Every structure is written in structure tokens, then in C-alpha cells.
Amino acid sequence: MIRRMYRRRFFCLVSVFLITAVLCCLIYERVRSEKLSTVLPRTESSHGYDMSPYVQLLKTIPPFWDENGDAIQNTEDILYIDAENEMEWKRRLPNALVIGVRKGGTRAVLDFLSRHPNVRVCPRETHFFDRQDNYVLGLDWYREQMAMSFPNEITIEKTPAYFVIDDVPNRVFRMSPSLKLLVVVRDPTIRAISDYAQLFEKANGTLRSFEEYITEDPQHRILRKMSSIVTTGIYVDHLNRWLKYFPLEQIHFINGEELIKNPVPEMQAVEKFLGLKPFIDENLFYYNETKGFLCLAPAAGMKGGGGHSGCLSESKGRPHPSVDEDVVTLLRDFYAPLNEKFYRAVGRNFDWD
Length: 353
Ligand code: A3P
Fold this sequence. Notes:
- The protein is an alpha/beta fold.
- It has two domains: about 50-90, no CATH class; about 90-285 and about 320-345, P-loop containing nucleotide triphosphate hydrolases (Rossmann fold), CATH 3.40.50.300.
- About 40% of the residues lie in helices and about 10% in strands.
- It is built from 13 helices and nine strands.
- It has helices at about 1-35, 50-60, 105-115, 130-135, 140-145, 170-175, 190-200, 210-215, 230, 235-245, 255-260, 265-275, 325-345, and strands spanning about 90, 95-100, 120, 150, 155-160, 180-185, 250-255, 285-290, 295.
- The chain has a five-stranded parallel sheet with strand order 3-5-2-6-7. The chain has a two-stranded antiparallel ribbon with strand order 1-4. It has a two-stranded antiparallel ribbon with strand order 8-9.
- The longest helix has about 35 residues, at about 1-35.
């Protein structure tokens, strides 16, 4: 009697186990197929998905291109790819970072790059390397913030605070010593005014004037040299911190002024630096009268631009306050020798003085 009861219980347990296992398999298969169907068109082929466009894509798009537009064959020359399993559509750690500078034009660079067929950008600033509460979440968390990518595409994140925060170069290096770094630099005096315009808006117009904000005395003759609005523009100091970990060849500087007026050559230089196939040209942009800036033209196949102007948000290209000439001169005099040092360090004259 007791034995029969145990036997019945045993069969019940086995049945429950088997049913659970079958249900788990079904759920797993369902989730997997939903993930896959976001990238691959469903067809009547034997396994339900037509893999051919994917395979074709891998075959026809070599990973990177050299200066002449030829495919690079030597894998050592190819940009680092987080490559546990390159055949997957998955999230990967970035291959390149836009590390600064704040108000230099970083969003424009990221938006323009996002149009490149071999680039996936992380849409938001993760602040992974500069904020301890994010950094402690680890690289798996960071990877989860990235966009999904195919193999042979490069992933780019931008957080302009990275350029100026002490711990960041070491942390970035520990993630990937071969990472490529992009820095958009802009006349530091104009950058400071742009930074102030943003702070003013965030403070709902309650901030003291730029002249008062940036100086220590009522006559506005002594600069608040230690305030971040000023120190951010000391590019040479920030660069020197990065150079302790990364060689100059791994850092590319984009001219923020040129980026506004004539972005094509600047962006083509970025493509070359990243080893990307040449793609960016004049056809990518149009001048938007209302915005007063160049904006991205509707992408091929995008009907009517998807109802989107292709311009950056209103927080980009704000009007600047008019600033007392003496204070502008104070800033210019302060930055002039530092700019000279920066030009020498990077081997390029940005003509800011
Ligand atoms: P202003 O708002 O001072 O004009 P960031 O994205 O790093 O915060 O930089 C913002 C700056 O990007 C803007 O500063 C703007 O001048 C510049 N910029 C460059 N190209 C732009 C574009 N096509 N549209 C809007 N802003 C652009």
C-alpha cells in the first residue's frame, strides 16, 4: 500500500518535471525566434528564417577599409572588436568613444556617424567611466547599454565628461587599450559661453550673468580659474592625462568650428581614423533655415524623413548671451598660451586666438 503510494508520487514528480522541461523549451524557442525575427525577414525556408541576407552581408562587407578604400586583409590592422562570437547580432563593448569636450559638438558627431552603415551608436550618455555608481555595475552592465550590432560594425559611445575626469583614462585603458578616442574641440572661450548658456537654461534663467559667474571680483578682472567652466577648456592638461595611457595616434581631434560650417571633411577624417568605408559626403546634409544649422537629410528609403527634420534638438545651437568685451579678452588671454601648448601637442593649429 505504502509502496504504491510512493510509486504514484514518484510518477507525479516525474510528470511535473517533464512538463516543466517541455514548457521551458517552448518559451526559450519563442524568445529566440522573436529576437531573430527583429533582424531577419521571415520566409518559408526549412528553418523558418532566410539567413541569406545576413550571410551575404558578412561576405560582401569586408570589416574595414584602408585610406584608398581597399579592404584590409591583415586582421592585426583591423580595429579591435569584442569578439567572443562574431557571428551574432548582439551587444558589444564600444570600439571607439567620443570622450569630449562638453559643448564641442559631440552630439553632432555621434548623429552624423550614426548614418554610417557600419556604425552603431549608443543613443545616450552612459557616464560609465566617470560615475562611480555606474562603474561599479561592471562591464556587463556597460555592454547592455550599447546598441545591438552585427559583426564587422563598430560600436560608439559618447560621454563628454570622460575627457576631463581624472580616473577615466585608466579605466578606459583597462577595458581596451586599443580603443579609438574622438575629441571634438572648440575655441575654449566660445565653449565656456556655450556651457554657460546651457547652465543658464537649466537654472531657468536664475543664474547670475556670465561676467559675474566666471570672475571673482566686481570689476570682472580676476578669472575663476578653478571653476569647471574654465578648466574644461584647458585641453592640453586633459590630453596629457590621456597620453599617459593612450598614444596620440589613437586619439583623433575634430575641429568643432569646422564641424558647424563644413562638416564633410571633418567627418571624412573621422571615417578614415576609424577605418570605416568612405560613406559620408555632401548628400548627407542640408541647410535648415529655421535651425540655422546643417541637418541630416532624410536617409535613402526613409519616406519624408520619417517626419523628422534631421536636425539636432533645441539644446544644440542655443543663442549665446552677449558678453562684455573685457571678459572675453580676459578669457582669451588666459587660454592663449594653453592653446599654443595644445596645438604643439597635437600637431594642428586650430586658430582660436
Ligand atoms: P551651441 O549650443 O553653443 O551652439 P555638444 O553636443 O557637445 O553639447 O555641443 C553642442 C554644440 O554643437 C552646439 O553649441 C552647436 O554649436 C554645435 N553643433 C555642431 N554642429 C551642429 C549642428 N549641425 N546642429 C546643431 N548644433 C551643432
